[in-house]
Design goal:
Strand content: 5-15%
Low-confidence stretches: none
Number of domains: 1
CATH architecture: 3-Layer(aba) Sandwich
Order of helices and strands: EHEHHHHEHEHHEH
Radius of gyration: 16 Å
Shape: globular
Number of strands: 5
Structural class: alpha/beta
Strand order of the largest sheet: 2-3-1-4-5
Mean pLDDT: 93
CATH class: Alpha Beta
């Protein structure tokens, strides 16, 4: 099996930056599974589909072929829509094969980031990590990210939206957000993301197989 590094965690935990930096450091493919759900959300809005129509969203996910990589999927509105879309079993089941195919097609191995990589998408991943951070730190990171993109936002609103997303992610009936039993849990509140990358890199090499 191709070496798979699974990095899961809630919004603002640093998983996207860490996964991207780690993949570059180790020469592996980076797969942002969140972008897949964001693409479904974007296409649903473009097609004027109801975000409450699980069957229509499931069909959209089943036929998804091209993943949007532009800034269109990085707005706060799409983030919230993606969180709603990802609740539906019809959507999640139809995206499983796509996520797995991206990783398996890589000859070098892959770093996958998401919310259920180590528990559902690749439960037999070679290495599993779960990133977390305080609610305040996560909101701070998200606010800086939005401001860097030119979006207007305030701290209290961002914090509220993060907590609402946590509630949806942790309590959905299929693939809820939680660390795999064999995942290494890393609190990123008091450390830089570069330090997290270094810690994961050392753990991966210590365990071997890359």
């Amino acid at each position: 099996m191709t070496d798979i590094i699974a990095i899961d965690g809630p919004a603002g935990s640093g998983k996207s930056s860490v996964a991207r930096m780690l993949a570059n450091k180790l020469g592996l493919l980076h797969v942002d599974t969140g972008a897949i759900y964001r693409t479904v959300a974007l296409r649903a809005i473009e097609l004027e589909l109801s975000l409450d129509d699980a069957n229509a969203l499931g069909n959209l996910a089943r036929n998804l072929e091209i993943i949007e990589k532009s800034a269109l999927i990085r707005t706060e509105a799409i983030s919230q829509a993606a969180s709603k879309v990802s609740q539906y079993p019809e959507v999640r089941s139809n995206l499983l094969d796509l996520q797995r195919r991206f990783a398996k097609d890589s000859k070098t191995g892959a770093v996958l980031e998401g919310r259920d990589i180590g528990t559902v998408v690749f439960p037999s991943a070679t290495h599993k990590f779960f990133l977390t951070a305080s609610n305040e730190k996560r909101a701070e990171r998200r606010l800086l990210e939005l401001e860097a993109r030119g979006e207007s936002a305030d701290y209290e609103t961002v914090l509220k939206e993060i907590l609402e997303r946590d509630e949806r992610d942790q309590n959905r009936c299929v693939a809820p957000l939680k660390p795999a039993l064999d995942a290494v849990v890393i609190d990123t509140t008091q450390v830089t993301l570069a330090q997290v990358v270094e810690r994961i890199s050392l753990a991966v090499h210590h365990r071997g197989s890359l």
